[in-house]
Amino acid sequence: MKNKILIIEDEIQLARNISILLKAENYDVRTSSNGTEGLESALNWLPDLIICDIMMPGMDGYAVFEALQKNITTSAIPFIYLTAKVERSDLRKGMELGADDYIFKPFSAEELIKAVSIRLQKFQKVKAKILTEQTDASGNVLSKKYKPEDKMFFKLHNSSILVLIEEIKCILSENQYSNIITAGNKSILVRRAISTWEKMLPEKMFIRIHRSTIINLKFILKIEKCSSGSYRVYLKDQQKYFDISRKYIKKLKNYF
Fold it and tell me: What pLDDT is stored for residue 188 in this prediction?
């Protein structure tokens, strides 16, 4: 099956040229000439990757991306910004929102194809969808506070994984993704900020120890103080340790 790529670009000729290049690489390609049309196409077609211009009349590329992030069916789709703007503030805004990459105009065919290939390969290796979350009529994820006995059902490639909340060992931030490590040391990568997990997980069971790390208290093997005065925590059946930020050490000590 061909990978599906959606191009959202208001410059018709540029969109056509990109489409020709990608079709020559055996991708299934569709184009949209504005953000509103592109968002509708993404929701209905569910592409494997989206290439979107930033500066468009009406709904710009940032607004398109933010809308896609609010919908469970599109939030994990790799998203590449297409832009002629190279201001640091613009780059920062896009990356903070969670975009996967930028392609700068003008670009070569080789640059385009390489960027697309890398993002698709990475996505196919790690993508997982949480299938047990509730959504509203538009597919937006409804907020939920999990209980230890709750279960999460993930769809990963052609397999399914059922995970008990209490069996999540730790959650590690990886840019716009979060890596869920289970009791059996399975790794599941989903597109969700670690700050969101912090709000959703049971407070008496999970604690954030670093800006990039949440741990399950029942899996703590030992907490070690280093000569520098910093702390690290070791989890059961986990070879590496995790650093504890100073802002979290006092909170962690309250549990012991």
Answer: 85
